[in-house]
Predict the structure.
Amino acid sequence: MPQITIDGKLCEFEGKKTILDVALDNGIEIPHYCYHPGMSVVASCRICMAEVEAPNPRNDNKLEMIPKLMPTCQTPAGEGQVVHTNSPKSVANQKSVMEFLLINHPLDCPVCDQAGECYLQDYSYKYGRSESRFDESKIKQPKKDIGEHVLLYSDRCIMCTRCVRFTKEVSGTSEIGIFGRGSSEQIDVFPGKPLDNELSGNVVDICPVGALLDKDFLMSMRVWNLEKAPSIDGITASGDNISIEYNEDRVYRVKPRTNMDINKWWTSDEIRFGWKFVHSEERHRSPQVKTEGESKEQDWNQAYEAVQAGLTGVLESRGSGSLAVMVSPMLSCEDAYLLGKLVIGLDSEAVIGVGPVPTSGQDKTFPGGYTITAEKCPNARGVRRALGQLTESVLDYNQFLAAIEDERTAAVILSGNYPSAWVTPDLAKAINGKFSVLIDTLPNSITENVNVLLPGATFVEKSGTFENHQNRLQSFDQAIKPIEFARTEGQISLDLIAKFGLGEPKRFDAHQTRIEMGDAFVTDVHHPSAESRKVSDMHLVQL
């Protein structure tokens, strides 16, 4: 395996890599702005340049210093090279580049959303000068609204061209270009063509400074106050690896986590901005029990007693085969398994089906390799797999509707948790006249008609496992607590299992549930790295 030495550290590498790639793979920081592993190399920012010694084949492979600084982002790594990023010549270049970049950059860090995660701030501290030598007036550039989700603060732009290359090479839409020359050069969108592609939010992530900003997150929270939990896309079947960033049990933004097997460095705007239903004012916050034809709020004990009384009455009067459960594809594998375990424990002949699987259009793959899936639920395959550990007969939605139309079915447990309307007229008709229990997060057309409503939790309020459209099982962590009196579907199932005397009372634990579910859910599940979770390092002192 070839080796190079970077700042005295011996580094091994495989294949064709640049010096910067090798450095980053080995935990060595070389400052860079324009370079991004998901796009072409332009070597325009020049801050990554370093002194390189390389074997000279014309002189018995003796090491010779290349007479000029080499851009490490563009220079191929070769056997025997010795790279110096902290030599006097390299350090002088870093300081010069930082000085040029800051000449016209506004000193507005206190009001910039990028503060706290800004490469310009970090590199200015590490590689820049302690004071400015520039006494002239700074050139002012305009602020612009360039798309539905993105604002452009041209003053802060350092012309790294990451956004330009992204729209050209990854999204393939080419809305952003470079206009003007010299000191008047700036990025902008073409006239009459705003930044409105399905991946537009990614330009905010890749901007190394505060030039491109997320309208949704603008001026809402300082990044050093945010905690970060590793999660999985809970809206579509893509299985995108994402980070839920939150503070005091409120989500502020969703960003992609790098996973080269799934979403690479990107995520879609649908996933990035589609979590708003989590904090909807319409969320179910407490159980409701239908009494004398009217739904009234009750506490959890009263709701569980109503469920127990209703299901026990049906089973005693109608016998086996009178119970049915519809498990939503929005639930995690663990939720689905425990809900199925509850129902089969009550009725071994129960009808078990998967809820409706919403779709929109067709899968769409972009030039950069990212795919937006047409299937708009995260776990249809995982729910079937989890229920398959309990029974061989798992019906799809249409089969389930046909099965519960049988007069033999007298009680139905339904789970929803969809971010939008999901109840079909056929379902509302099929459950009419039956004892019904609904576990859901948002109101729908049957909310007022069911006998018992139990408020569930969204995917950011629980931990579990999803199986994406490529049949990849991926676990995710809980970010925030369920709102007010809501509970996760797994906990509701465990509570009812204990209430019916089918098991001991216990708290929901996704890991222990996976162990119970079988080997596939232990060995085949991909877990987020320990570094994916981040706790805020801001210490608050009460005065």
